[in-house]
Amino acid sequence: MKIVKDFRNRYVKSQTRRHFLRQCSTGLGAMALGSIFACRNDKEHLLHPTGTVEGISHYPGKAKRVIYLHMAGSPSQLELFDYKPTLNDLHGKPCPDSLLEGRNFAFISGTPEMLGHQGQFKQYGESGAWVSHYLPHFSSVVDDVCFLKAMHTDEFNHAPAQLFLYSGSPRLGRPSMGSWITYGLGSEAQDLPGFVVLVSGGLTPSAGKSVWGSGFLPSVYQGVQCRSEGDPVLFINNPDGISRDIRRKTIDAINHLNKKEYEEVGDPEILTRIAQYEMAFKMQMSVPEVMDINREPQYIHNLYGTEPGKASFANNCLLARRLAEQGVRFIQLFHWGWDSHGASKDEALNGGFVDRCQEVDKAMTALLTDLKQRGMLDETLVVWGGEFGRTPMRENRLGVDPELIGRDHHTDAFTIWMAGGGVKEGMTFGETDEIGYAGVKDKVHVHDLQATILHTLGLDHEKLTYQFQGRDFRLTDVHGKVVKPIIA
Amino acid sequence: MDFWAWLGRFHPALVHFPIGIIVVGIILYYINRYRPEWKVAQAISPVFFIGFISALLAALCGWMLAEEGGYDTNTLFWHRWLGVGIVLLSFGLWWWHSKDNLKPAKYGAPLLVAGILVTGHLGGNLTHGEGFLVEKGPEFLKKLTAYDEKTAIPTFDDPDSCNVYHDLIYPVLESKCISCHNSKLRKGGLDMSNTESLMKGGRNGEVIEGESVSSEIFKRVVLDPSSRKYMPPKGTPMSYREIKLLEWWIDAGAHFDKSVSQTETPKDIAGILLSRHKLDITPKSFLEKTKVPALEDQVFVELEKQGFAVQPLAMTSPFIDVRWKRVDSLSLSNALESLQSMASEQVAWLDLGESPLSDADLANVAKCKNLVRLKLQKTPVSDDGVKILSQLKHLESLNLYGTKITNSAAEHLSKMSSLRNLYVWQTGLDQENAENLETSNPDLEVVLGVSVGD
């Protein structure tokens, strides 16, 4: 008996943590590969046909995909949606100390003046939503939209606030929302990535590409950036003299080597690499087709205000619709240039801000109209917003042109809107105080927004988890509450 | 402050100590009897003494607690007098031991153990309810104790089919009232066993008059339990939740034929229905209410082979979301035939957009009777096809954009009363007909889209 015992002890000792982890990761990698292509030819996969990890219980979601229109730099809610007559009355008066005590602002120092609305507000639609004159097109579709007016966040600088919004943490390293969602639901698109990113306005968002990174999730789930100017994806075309057949053979050879390597070391990232080669090969055919907006009829170009060949927000909105039609799960648009401090002509409420409004107004309205007439708005959640809000006080930066008007970053209150898939139409949820400084009713935190977006897709934010470094992580970390009243 | 009642509340805190200490005494007694060399004899007498004193205190508190009322009278009788017996017997054991008379303990010790077990069990039933111990137990135990499943609280899953009086109120009356107020005994002239005699009332007139506060039946169960008029006079009193349900039923008009979904239900009652009867009254969509068998894995494989992408609506849902993958080499007609034969009940969402769908194929689509979302955009579907589709009774969203339908389709579309969203952009259906459809079905939104000519 002692021999048996001794033998068992030796066996247990030889099983290291590394063995265990390797066994785990092989399984996960295989699952990852299966779900990203939604190819269902083995019975095992059928047990989890949505590509999710076993044990996640979903409810039927109304939305199938998300188009997130991010206004990088954060537009002023006080110039667009959050109408406060009292703020106009207080225009030019010094800000009371009670609003400044113990507070950190990105740039405001000393005692700033209150700043009245720069836009003229009116109520629109049957829902009577307040919209300013800066968005003349958008005001016609407010009855399709649900406004969240008492949003708040924890971060008052662009990069951490954007990371916080998209990954649930203000620091680098977590998977982004689109990665979580494609990880959870897989992709319907056979020949396109499940998560596509489109950038306009000249610059990538302050937080860089991490806002569409996959963090510790297998990197098949990271966002793929497509460009609406020049080649949609860099180096997507075969070099001169390389035919598609030769390309196929090359990829087959590389994949063969990679498979061998995988069998030896079992690193799931090798499976990701194999998957990416296959996807890239398919994308050589599919991407040029889907990204070519010249195929659209003239009335669609008129609707969106698109000009083929430019990296404009309008082009990206039209591309978003085309990608949605192909079954892409998460389409992320960034439009840069909303940081209206009043520090320069382009960063002022009476400068660049007005231009930005003109750039997005027609296109985002067209996107909603177009999705609706194609019967896609019901199953597509469209979200619009920045990473935080702007102060009711005027920013008082020294030494700049006194003609320029601006507002500072503000965490306590901002407005976003959602439309389509699973969200109530023509609703305004949440309220700020009489000067729009902070939410007073139905406040929604960034984590609550994340939980709600997952909910519309049928994902439970508390169950969509991934184990990393010894604990389960999720998009909402340990926070977040689904905003039930806005769910249709 | 009511000192004696307050003292009574210490009964649960005190009662466990004598149980333990008396059992220790009995263990010591047996050790001394069979292993006298362990020399525990000295300890027996003081242990029994402490047992007796603590049992006396616990029993006194228990007596005070019983005075408050609200307990099942039958069980309480036995619990009370067995408790007194334990006090006396533990006193006896101490007395005889202190006099070195060990004989009575030969019979007294096992008797005391049995007494403690029975009394403790009855005490448990008093606080937790009759059948507490067997409710979750094995079947043979239930049979042995004649545990009646019917007295267990019934559960329901559909507020439409759960009748407020017959399913929720009557079982309470049956267990608490009807043993006296039946057609034979008619205590107080009241017979509650059928609805007519219940409404007729008793010797002193009607027992249900208008609101709950003015109804005798309600007033009697919320009296001070020590009152002479308190009901039920013996047996288990009505629980808080039973009283709340009774109040809800009377205030809703004491009706006999309405279901839960036809009765206005405040939040606290909704909570009681959920926790007591597992009845969830939050409004559910058609798919959430409908039950169909889940599909075998093999069906998914087969449908994929035929050219569909198939996904369950959710992990826990038997319904499926089916999309035609537009593989040119496969026949849509054959695929739809298979879909209808294998999964006609399970298809909830179906996307056949941009396919060469014929009106004949729609006969197979129309057999998928639980369809909720149907997408037929940019297919050659005509008015005749829409006529076939009008059989679908639960269809909420129908996408016909870019099809060949004309104004003649309006007649068939108007018959689809469950429809909420209708997409007719780039078709022959004009604004006037669209508006007429919206007027005849106020829940319907017809989306015409932008004018192509602009």
> What CATH first level of the largest domain in chain B would be assigned?
Alpha Beta
Biggest sheet overview of chain B: 7 strands, mixed
Largest sheet of chain A: 9 strands, mixed
Instruction: Tell me the Rg of chain A in angstroms.
Output: 25 Å
Strand content of chain A: 15-25%
Descriptive account of the structure:
The complex is a heterodimer of chains A (488) and B (454). Chain A is globular. The termini of chain A are far apart. Chain A has 488 residues and is α/β, with parallel strands linked by helices. Chain A has a single domain (50-228, 297-486), classed as Alkaline Phosphatase, subunit A, CATH 3.40.720. The model of chain A is unreliable at 34-57 (pLDDT under 50). Chain A has 13 helices and 17 strands. Chain A has helices at residues 2-14, 17-37, 43-46, 77-80, 85-89, 158-167, 177-185, 244-265, 268-290, 298-304, 313-325, 352-373, 446-456, and strands at residues 65-72, 121-124, 129-132, 145-152, 195-200, 224-226, 330-336, 380-385, 389-394, 407-410, 414-420, 427-429, 431-432, 439-441, 444-445, 466-468, 471-473. In chain A, strands 1, 4, 5, 6, 7, 8, 11, 12 and 15 form a 9-stranded mixed sheet that branches. In chain A, strands 2-3 form a two-stranded antiparallel sheet. A two-stranded antiparallel sheet of chain A has the order 9-10. In chain A, helix 2 packs parallel to helix 9 (268-290), helix 8 packs antiparallel against helix 9 and helix 11 (313-325) packs parallel to helix 12. Chain B is mainly alpha-helical. Chain B folds into 3 domains: 3-144; 153-277, no CATH class; 297-447, Leucine-rich repeat, LRR (right-handed beta-alpha superhelix) (Alpha-Beta Horseshoe), CATH 3.80.10.10. Helices cover 48% and strands 6% of the residues of chain B. Chain B contains 19 helices and 7 strands. A 7-stranded mixed sheet of chain B has the order 1-2-3-4-5-6-7. In chain B, strand 5, helix 18 (409-413) and strand 6 (421-423) form a beta-alpha-beta unit. Chain B starts with a helix and ends in a 7-residue tail after the last strand. Chain A binds chain B through residues 38, 40-41, 43, 46-50, 52, 56-61, 188, 190, 297, 299, 302-303, 369-370, 372-375, 378, 458, and chain B through 287-288, 297, 300-301, 304, 309-317, 319, 323, 325, 373, 375, 377, 397, 399, 401, 421, 423, 425, 447-454.
